[in-house]
């Protein structure tokens, strides 16, 4: 039986490398090139540079600051695991023009949806996905809501769409 099996297997030409060896070399180079590229991509997805936005500690303090300063609140709901959130934080919220616009016109609040202390706020505003950006008046009423990531022009359009009277009045 072993003789029959040996006769059916193709034999390699003399002097050519065995097929198993070339397969090992291929997979070695595949993994040596794929792993660094994958790690670089992961780092890029989760890297978030610091920004100069002064975020309120929690919803109550943001609401108090909004009443005192007579400004609307901009709430950014995020998660540590949320790649689109990190991309938006890196490409939009770290931009100097966006930082200046937010600091000048809003009381900014960053809420991690996984934080148990923020569960009541997440539930109240029915945030089911991240990133979610909500603009509120000082009393907590929704003026504008956007679910999903945005690029810089879309974000600037969002914060610029508010009529000046809305941003400056307090009922």
End-to-end separation in angstroms reads 94 Å
Major β-sheet strand ordering: 2-1-3-4
**Structural domain count:** 2
The topology string of helices and strands comes to: HHHEHHEHEEHH
Low-confidence stretches: 165-171
Cα-atom Rg, whole angstroms?
A: 27 Å
CATH class of the largest domain: Alpha Beta
Strand runs, count: 4
The amount of helix comes to 40-55%
Q: How many H/I helices?
A: 8
Shape: elongated
Structure description:
This protein has 171 residues and is of the alpha+beta class. It folds into 2 domains: 17-45; 59-168, Glutaredoxin. It is built from 8 helices and 4 strands. It has helices at 2-8, 19-46, 59-69, 83-93, 96-105, 119-124, 152-160, 164-168; strands at 73-78, 107-112, 132-136, 142-147. The chain has a 4-stranded mixed β-sheet, with helices on both faces. It is elongated. Mean pLDDT is 82; it is low at 165-171.
Which labels suit this protein?
2 domains; disordered C terminus; single chain; elongated; 171 residues
């Amino acid at each position: 039986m072993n003789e029959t099996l040996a006769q059916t297997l193709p034999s390699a030409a003399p002097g050519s490398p065995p097929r198993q060896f070339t397969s090992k070399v291929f997979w070695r180079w595949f993994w040596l090139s794929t792993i660094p590229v994958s790690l670089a991509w992961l780092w890029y997805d989760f890297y978030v540079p610091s920004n100069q936005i002064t975020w309120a500690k929690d919803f109550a303090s943001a609401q108090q600051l909004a009443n005192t300063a007579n400004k609307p609140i901009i709430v950014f709901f995020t998660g540590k695991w949320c790649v689109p959130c990190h991309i938006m934080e890196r490409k939009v919220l770290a931009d100097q023009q966006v930082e200046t616009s937010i600091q000048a016109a809003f009381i900014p609040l960053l809420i991690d949806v996984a934080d148990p202390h923020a569960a009541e706020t997440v539930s109240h505003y029915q945030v089911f996905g991240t990133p979610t950006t909500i603009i509120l008046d000082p009393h907590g009423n929704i003026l504008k809501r956007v679910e999903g990531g945005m690029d810089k022009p879309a974000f600037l359009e969002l914060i610029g769409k508010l009529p000046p009277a809305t941003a400056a009045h307090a009922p």
